[in-house]
Write a structure and sequence with these properties.
This is Lipoyl-binding domain-containing protein. The chain is about 35% helix and about 25% strand. By secondary structure, it is an alpha+beta fold. The protein has 2 domains: about 80 residues, RNA polymerase II/Efflux pump adaptor protein, barrel-sandwich hybrid domain (OB fold (Dihydrolipoamide Acetyltransferase, E2P), Beta Barrel), CATH 2.40.50; about 60 residues. The strands form 2 sheets. Strands 1-8-6-3 form a 4-stranded antiparallel beta sheet, covered by helices on one side.
Length: about 150
């Protein structure tokens, strides 16, 4: 099962409004086929399906404003039957709140990891001088920013 989340359409975009669902629960969909249309304060856009399959749940209604990253639909295997309507909205809200809590921890961890990797992979001054020499001696044009 694939969770379809409200996409981030720009740096400062924090939410989007569902304008129209192009497909309904039970419909088959192909990857990259238009699934829905959303509106933000900066742009209106058609959102493609992240996977092929059958729409088994739509948890956001038309004209509903949804925070970025929240689950708005679910796509199951081709031919899979739709999810029964037993508090799916509540389940989706619980999943969204858990994923929002987990994301902040993951981001902190990945930032620390990236810093360590950058420090370990930094080239020595000998390596950078060899690179600079090879760039300057080649016949290709390089911007002064690349050479420094």
């Amino acid at each position: 099962m694939i969770d379809v989340v409200m996409p981030k359409m720009g740096e400062s975009i924090t939410e989007g409004t569902i304008l129209e669902w192009k497909k309904q629960v039970g419909d088959s969909i192909n990857k990259d086929e238009a699934l829905l249309e959303i509106s933000t304060d900066k742009v209106d856009s058609e959102i493609p399906s992240p996977a092929s399959g059958t729409i088994i749940e739509i948890s956001a209604k038309v004209n509903e404003t949804v925070p970025v990253g929240n689950i708005i639909a679910r796509i199951g295997e081709i031919g899979e039957s739709p999810t029964p309507n037993r508090d799916t909205k509540l389940d989706t809200e619980e999943a969204n709140s858990k994923s929002a809590k987990g994301k902040s921890k993951d981001v902190e961890y990945s930032q620390d990891t990236d810093m360590v990797e950058i420090e370990e992979k930094a080239p020595s001054s000998l390596e950078t001088s060899n690179i600079s020499a090879s760039i300057q001696s080649s016949k290709r044009f390089y911007s002064p920013l690349v050479k420094s």
